[in-house]
Design a protein that fits this description.
Helix 1 (2-18) packs parallel to helix 2 (30-49). The chain has a nine-stranded mixed beta sheet with strand order 1-4-7-10-13-18-21-24-25. A seven-stranded parallel beta sheet has the order 2-5-8-11-14-19-22, with no helix packed on it. By secondary structure, it is an alpha/beta fold. It has helices at residues 2-18, 30-49, and strands at 63-64, 69-71, 76-78, 83-84, 89-91, 98-100, 105-106, 111-113, 125-127, 132-133, 138-140, 145-147, 152-153, 158-160, 163-164, 178-179, 183-185, 190-191, 196-198, 202-203, 208-209, 214-215, 218-219, 223-226, 231-235. The protein folds into two domains: 1-49, no CATH class; 56-238, UDP N-Acetylglucosamine Acyltransferase, domain 1.
Length: 239
């Protein structure tokens, strides 16, 4: 009886923070739920200890893991129920800042870095509601990286939204400047582990990108793409 009360309480709290219906699996032991609840409480306390004022609204509480680094915090905007797992690094320094939507989860040791050098401020990064980025991912958002809603991104994904100019052979590459087009992933996509996105890549709504692919151009909506470079295998609408 007590275990069922605890189970229901934790389920209700999950629904509150997510702002949507959320059903825990009945097979999860209550002891695991209690441990999970305690770890989430610690993540909230870290948030308060850092003095993040916008979390005083209960519906915008965020969960911060251990050893998380938030630089230029005033340029980072969080939605409700955001989770930032241990060791993640987010730098808000950019023209448009960093915007993280509701219920987004950033995996452990993920790096979001819009600006690599102070001589050229980057564009910025945004990710829509209910999306997630797997552990050990790197998001270089100098040219701008925009990820839509309900996007699943596997571990060790990497985004590189600028290219170095290599036109002159008598000038060091690092002194020739860069070009920037940006990277965009639209809503409801599934991105496998170890996928690399190069500057100028766009992924249409509802796409599936296979693990290990390198995306450098446009992938039409509802495509399944794989390979290096990523090429369309088929369209999901074809069944």
């Amino acid at each position: 009886m007590v275990s069922r009360i605890v189970f229901n309480l934790i389920n209700k709290l999950a629904c509150f923070f997510k702002g949507e219906s959320y059903a825990l699996d009945d097979a999860v032991p209550v002891s695991s739920l209690i441990f999970y609840g305690l770890s989430r409480t610690l993540a909230l306390l870290r948030c308060f200890c850092r003095g993040i004022r916008f979390t005083l609204n209960p519906k915008k509480l965020i969960f911060i893991g251990s050893d998380v680094v938030l630089k230029n915090r005033r340029q980072i905007s969080f939605g409700r129920g955001v989770t930032i797992e241990r060791g993640a690094y987010i730098d808000g320094l950019s023209i448009k800042g960093v915007t993280i939507g509701d219920n987004v989860k950033l995996g452990a040791y993920t790096i979001i870095e819009p600006t690599g050098v102070l001589t050229s401020i980057g564009n910025g990064f945004s990710i829509g509601s209910n999306s997630g980025v797997g552990a050990f991912s790197f998001i270089g958002a100098a040219g701008g990286v925009a990820i839509g809603e309900n996007v699943i991104i596997g571990q060790r994904a990497s985004f590189h939204s600028e290219n170095h100019v290599i036109r002159c052979i008598d000038i060091p590459i690092r002194n020739q400047g860069v070009t920037r087009q940006g990277i965009r992933i639209e809503d409801d996509c599934w991105i496998g582990a170890n996928v690399t996105f190069l500057d100028g890549a766009t992924v249409g709504k509802g796409c599936v990108i296979a693990a290990g692919a390198v995306v450098r151009t446009n992938i039409p909506p509802y495509s399944i793409a794989a390979g290096i470079p990523a090429t369309v295998i088929r369209n999901r609408k074809d069944g």
